[in-house]
């Protein structure tokens, strides 16, 4: 049997092993670790007070102290990876009991029931019972990792939903734009059912054209060759339109005339205005190109090459031909002028116009495409420019036409003219509309004819008297003057058949015989020419 332990010894043992608020007993003077990881030194336990004198206790049957389940300190539950195995309880020893050997409570022991202060003192707990406090940091990291994982997973779900919504919105926007663009195209093209509009000539946007008229004038005879140089800027092509001298134009006097007579009688400005009225085209200016200037122009561009359709003889008999018939003929300035003005016997004027068109297109191929350089070439010619077409404007126009000629987007067309000088409906709807972008307004062949009076009677004042008589009769007299030579018999000459009746009416007005009226050439600026002879009586 174990020897009895003294009262003081038991008190010190009980005091040293007492738990504080459910914690494990800590020996005096040792290091104590708190729940927060803080380490504190345990102060030494003071000596116990003297025990009171023992008194005899009444004889009662021994009772066992109340056995209460150990109370564990309140802790924050943490997530564990698995169930914790049960820990074995430490067996109670006799020296830890508060009873004596007879089973009765010891008289010098402290009350055993301290639930309100430090918890039950009848049981001891080992430090491994609170190992979850030491594992708090690791367990907290697990919780934080789990929360981060849950949060990142939620964010990924939300991000995926947001991207999905953005894709849907973007798809809807693209679909709406495509649908709107398609409907707009169909509407503008007139292919949308129920909204198609009938296309008319006024609905179509006209091409941008720049037109100038060029007159090649021969110094010796004064004959002219006329062409329109057309630059279609929208279609990127150029055209030379050749105009026959028989083209009927409206005169400034209110009558009808031809292109050839208009230039000689009324000048370049009036002729340009008459062409504008006839063709409905906006001619920007006139380029009067006399034959010496054409010769210089060909020399300045280094000569030209044409496909000749005729042999042009030399200036004198026995001289070598200036131009031989065939392709690839290289021409200098003199040869170019000779070919452009050549008109064979019994050939119509349109054949000579075609040769002039060949020369002009060949010259445009050699002109510089730089506007400044082309302007320098024009200035070097030394011409007197038209008030409506400066040298800079002419140079720029030639440079643009040269680009089309070098690119192969250039052609030469002859304007077809009827026998009375007018333009047919086919010509109006074809060449005039497509090339010039205009509409034809033909001059009235039955309009009042223009008359020219020449005095060959030798009587002073006869011409003025005849002019007054004709004006009072409703005729238009454009000029009066003396004839080159006297004549015994008066004559009235008309050029076109549609003026025959008016010529006969003029003869009756002047009191002349009907056989004095004949068809033939007369004054260049008039439709009917009246020559007063000695038989005329004022």
From TrEMBL:
Keywords: Membrane, Transmembrane, Transmembrane helix
Low complexity compositional bias, start-end: 1-26
Domain LytR/CpsA/Psr regulator C-terminal: 449-536
Domain of life: Bacteria
Ranges of Pro residues composition bias in the record: 43-76
Biased composition (Basic residues): 78-92
Cell envelope-related transcriptional attenuator domain mapped to chain residues: 258-368
Region Disordered: start-end pairs: 1-136
Family annotation (InterPro entries): LytR/CpsA/Psr_C, LytR/CpsA/Psr_CW_biosynth, LytR_CpsA_psr
Ranges that cross the membrane: 168-187
Biased composition annotated in UniProt, kind: Basic and acidic residues: 111-135
PANTHER family to which the protein is assigned, alphabetical: POLYISOPRENYL-TEICHOIC ACID--PEPTIDOGLYCAN TEICHOIC ACID TRANSFERASE TAGU
Annotated family: Belongs to the LytR/CpsA/Psr (LCP) family.
Protein name, as recorded: LytR family transcriptional regulator
Protein's organism: Streptomyces alkaliterrae
């Amino acid at each position: 049997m174990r020897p009895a332990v003294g009262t003081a010894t038991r008190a010190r043992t009980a005091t040293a092993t007492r738990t504080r608020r459910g914690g494990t007993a800590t020996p005096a003077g040792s290091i104590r670790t708190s729940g927060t990881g803080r380490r504190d030194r345990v102060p030494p336990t003071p000596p116990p007070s003297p025990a009171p004198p023992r008194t005899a206790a009444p004889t009662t049957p021994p009772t066992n102290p109340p056995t209460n389940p150990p109370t564990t300190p309140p802790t924050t539950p943490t997530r564990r990876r698995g169930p914790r195995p049960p820990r074995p309880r430490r067996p109670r020893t006799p020296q830890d009991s508060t009873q004596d050997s007879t089973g009765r409570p010891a008289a010098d022991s402290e009350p055993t029931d301290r639930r309100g202060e430090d918890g039950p003192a009848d049981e001891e707990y080992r430090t491994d019972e609170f190992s979850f406090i030491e594992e708090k940091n690791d367990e907290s990291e697990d919780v934080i990792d789990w929360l981060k994982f849950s949060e990142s997973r939620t964010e990924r779900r939300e991000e995926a939903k947001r991207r999905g919504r953005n894709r849907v919105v973007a798809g809807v926007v693209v679909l709406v734009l495509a649908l709107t663009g398609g409907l707009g195209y169909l509407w503008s093209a007139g292919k949308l059912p129920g909204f198609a509009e009938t296309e008319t000539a006024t609905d179509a946007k006209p091409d941008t054209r720049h037109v100038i008229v060029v007159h090649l004038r021969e110094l010796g005879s004064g004959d002219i060759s006329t062409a329109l140089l057309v630059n279609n800027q929208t279609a990127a092509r150029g055209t030379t339109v050749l105009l026959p001298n028989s083209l009927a134009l409206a005169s400034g006097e209110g009558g009808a005339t031809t292109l050839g007579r208009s230039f000689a009688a009324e000048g370049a400005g009036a002729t340009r205005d008459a062409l504008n009225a006839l063709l409905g085209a906006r001619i920007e200016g006139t380029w009067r190109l006399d034959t010496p200037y054409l010769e210089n122009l060909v020399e300045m561009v280094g000569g030209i090459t044409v496909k000749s359709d005729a042999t042009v003889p030399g200036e004198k008999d026995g001289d070598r031909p200036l131009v031989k018939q065939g392709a690839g003929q290289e021409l200098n300035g003199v040869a170019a002028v000779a070919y452009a003005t050549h008109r064979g016997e019994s050939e119509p004027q349109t054949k000579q116009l075609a040769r002039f068109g060949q020369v002009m297109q060949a010259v445009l191929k050699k002109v510089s495409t730089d506007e400044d350089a082309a302007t320098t070439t024009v200035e070097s010619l030394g011409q007197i420019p038209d008030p409506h077409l400066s040298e800079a404007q002419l140079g720029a126009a030639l440079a643009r036409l040269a680009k089309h000629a070098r690119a192969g987007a250039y052609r030469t067309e002859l304007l077809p003219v009827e026998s009375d000088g007018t333009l047919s409906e086919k010509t109006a709807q074809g060449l005039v509309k497509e090339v010039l972008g205009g509409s034809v307004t033909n001059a009235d062949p039955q309009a009042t004819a223009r008359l020219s009076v020449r005095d060959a009677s030798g009587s002073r004042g006869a011409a003025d008297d005849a002019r007054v008589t004709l004006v009072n009769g409703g005729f238009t007299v454009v000029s009066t003057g003396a004839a080159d030579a006297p004549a015994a018999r008066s004559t009235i000459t008309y050029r076109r058949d549609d003026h025959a009746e008016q010529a006969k009416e003029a003869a009756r007005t002047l009191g002349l015989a009907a056989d004095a009226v004949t068809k033939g050439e007369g004054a260049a600026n008039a439709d009917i020419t009246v020559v007063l002879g000695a038989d005329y009586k004022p």
